[in-house]
Amino acid sequence: MKQLLSVLFLASFVTAPMAAEEAVINVYNWSDYIADEVITDFEKESGIKVVYDVYDSNEVLEAKLLAGRSGYDLVFPTARPFAGRHIKAGVYQKLDKNKLANISNLSPSIMKGLSDIDPGNAHAVPYMWGTTSLGINPDKVANLLGSDVPSDTWALIFDPKYAAKLAACGISLMDDTTEVISAALIYLGKDVNSTSKADLDAATAMLAAVRPYIRYFHSSQYVNDLANGDLCVAHAYSGDVLQARDRADEAKNGVKVALTIPREGAIAFVDVMVIPADAKHSENAHRLIDYLMRPEVIAKISNYVGYANAIPASKPLLDEAVRNNSGIFPSDEVLARLVAPAELDPASQRARTRAWTRVKAGQ
Amino acid sequence: MASPFLSRLTLQLQQLQAGRRLVVAVPLLWLGIFFGVPFLIIARISLSEVIIGLPPYSDILAWSSQAMLTIRLNFGNFLLLFNDSLYFSAFTNSLRVSTIATLICLIIGYPIALGIARSRESLRVPLLMLIILPFWTSFLIRIYAWIGILKGNGLINNLLLWLGVIDTPLQLLHTDFALLLGIVYGYLPFMVLPLYATLSRMDHTLLEAAADLGCKPTAAFWRVTVPLSMPGIIAGSLLVFVPAVGEFVIPDLLGGPDSLMIGKVLWTEFFSNRDWPVATAVAVTLLALLVVPVMLFEHYREKGQAL
Questions:
Q1: Which of A343, A324, A357, A279 is nearest to A93 (CA)?
Q2: Which residue of B has its CA nearest to A355?
Q3: Which residue from B55, B89, B272 is facing A68, i.e. has the nearest CB?
Q4: What does the alpha-carbon distance between residue B216 and residue A56 come to, in Å, rounded to a whole number?
Q5: A26, β-bridge pairs
Q6: How far A78 CA lies from chain B's nearest CA (Å)?
Q7: What are phi and psi of A116, to 5 degrees?
């Protein structure tokens, strides 16, 4: 009897941790997209170990999610078109809002804006939002073009007249079909979601004309290169440009980096927090999401990454430089020029990718 | 008298065959599990259609209500490869780059291998170690290191600027030059090692005989050493050429955007287009175009040796 009891006792010991969730969470987020102290603070408070992994393009995240069993518990895709189509494909689980006490902190207008791709905001809550704009080295650009050429225009990259001159100090474009074709269509004054062949051909022809002046196509390399003065114009995520600026300041290397949102318009993106359907630590993921919706926590992240968040109550807690930065919180006039890419039909998507591959290959 | 001998002989033969089968069975099983099965999975995806779902392709097998098995095969993915010139030019460019890289590896690797094979016995092991030593560092890190050396603000450009040879940094990184450099650097040991293996086993008395018969050293090299080292040349060239054709890391990190190689096209199909069926169709076609000729070549070479 004693033996039986001890066996039962041991068994309860072995199975107990199985019932509760393992104190681990596997997070997959964009590179340079969180303040490190937030992770350590969360670990201290919750006792949950955060395993943190990064990517630099939605496509890479998407490929892992669609393959299934990614092993991640919390991911941060861009809402349009990526999270939208993932929700359709059933990649994510519904959020248990009873576990998200801080959900009421979220900006109602951003939540409403997401409700068309995620009806009832059932799967996703917003993390940060920003723009895809231009990161420039104002000294070098002024040196090569003269000071009377405006720096807030896509023409710096897409007009061969300027691009030819700026090629000497380096132009980079993102290696991303959606971002580049959209930027080209915006500069040409076309609809960013155009599926017309004529529009795509016009964008492709324009890209091909400046292709010789592009140093490389990459979606994260430019952060270091801007900071080191190896590039003078980068097609870049707004927060990345501000981080490059901060790194250059820290290094005291005399390199200036500036963010400009082009006057022709730019893509605005919202990145959302979602839990994959097959996540093993969904409970912990809910806890981390809830933690990240605290105004004082998300303010730390915004201060560090240079992106605006979706928690209005955090704004008074931001550094003054961040709060007053027109690149992070654009004026209403600039906001009106921002656009969001929509989900395209597969044939149009393929036509765009094909066009982009040809441009890159110089064919 | 003859029958027990015969039966013993047949028994021995049977045992020998069983042993042979066993020896062959292990690698065959290995190939079956790690090459055959994945290939079938890939081939199956290549015949399906893209859907928005998890996984992002349709199932080619479906059970209908009347216990009927329906098979839907989509050959459109393969047709696309032939109708769109992008794939053809990517493939020919891959072949071009790999051929040039293989030739450079051979030209650099042959003297190295010959030098090691002809050096003193005590020196050979340290020299071979020097060839193998880079493998102790990850391939990816070694290729990444070249970025630091080649970039505009990197070692070479800064040295040349400092020496006053150039005024503005040279564009070295993201060019075909960097791509070839990376491939030659990465794959050179695969050329040197098989060459060394054949050259070190060569009978030196043959060269002495050639000299005795009045053959000059250069002529002896071309007429004796090179033909005898042919197996090493072929093995080394294949070991460089075949992986170089499908190379993804080096063109991605060092190559320019115009160095369109089939490995990158595959990546684009898989990641940017989310088109697993076309990506796998590229993989299957690549395999057919690359491995089948190599196998045929090996087959005929063995036949030629047997004759």
A1: A279
A2: B86
A3: B55
A4: 61
A5: A51
A6: 15
A7: -75, -30
Does B54 contact A346 at a Cβ distance shorter than 8 Å? no
Confidence bin at A20 (pLDDT 50/70/90): low
> Which one of A66, A360, A361 has the shortest CB-CB distance to B56?
A66
For chain B, state the CA radius of gyration: 26
Interface residues from chain B to A (CB-CB < 8 Å)? 50, 52-56, 84, 86, 89-90, 151-153, 168, 171, 174, 256-258, 260, 265, 268, 270-275
User: Which positions 6-35 of A are in contact with B (Cβ < 8 Å)?
Assistant: none
To the nearest whole angstrom, how far is the Cα of B199 from the nearest Cα of chain A?
42
Q: What is the pLDDT of residues B242-298, one digit of tens each?
A: 899 989 999 988 987 777 889 888 888 888 778 889 899 999 998 888 877 778 777
pLDDT tens profile B114-124: 999 999 989 99
Asked whether the predicted pLDDT for residue B3 surpasses 80, the reply is no
Which CATH code fits B84-274? 1.10.3720.10
Is the interface score ipTM higher than 0.85? no
Euclidean distance between the first and final Cα of chain B, in Å? 37
Exposure letters B272-290 (e unless 16+ CB within 10 A, then b): bbbbbbbbbbbbbbbeeeb
A64 touches chain B (CB under 8 A): no
Q: For chain B, which residues make up each domain, given as ranges?
A: 1-82, 84-274
A-B contacts at Cβ under 8 angstroms: 74
Is the entire prediction scored with pTM above 0.80?
A: no
As a 3-state breakdown, chain A gives helix, strand, coil percent values, each rounded to 5, of 50, 15, 35
Q: Are strands A125-136 and A266-273 parallel, antiparallel or unpaired?
A: antiparallel
H-type helices in B201-275, by residue range?
204-212, 217-220, 226-228, 230-245, 249-253, 262-271
If we measure between CA atoms, which residue out of A137, A139, A159, A140 comes closest to residue A207? A159
Q: Tell me which residue of A48, A63, A93 sits closest to A278, measured CA to CA.
A: A93
CA neighbor of A226 nearest in space, from A172, A304, A184: A172
Residue bearing tokens 């097998």: B61
Beta carbons of B272 and A356 less than 8 Å apart: yes
* B-interface mutation test, from A137, A210, A232, A360, most B Cβ less than 10 A away: A360
